[in-house]
Amino acid sequence: MNSGRVSQGPKVKEFEESIAKSIGVKYAVAVSNCTNALHLANISIGISLGDEVLVADYTFPATGHSVLYCGATPVFVDNDPKTYNIDPTKIEEFLLKEKPDLVIMYNNTNSTFAGALAEAGLRSFDRTMPEEINRVLIDHISDVLFCLTQTAVDNLRNEGITRGVHLVGDVMVDALEFNKGIAEDRSQILERLRVVSKQYLVITVHRPANTDSREYMENIIGAVGEARMPVVFPVHPRTKKFLEEYGMWNRLPANIIVTEPLGYLDMLKLIRHACKILTDSGGIHKEAHILSVPCITLRDGTEWVETMEDGGYINGNG
Question: Which position has the higher pLDDT, 82 or 11?
Answer without folding.
Answer: 11
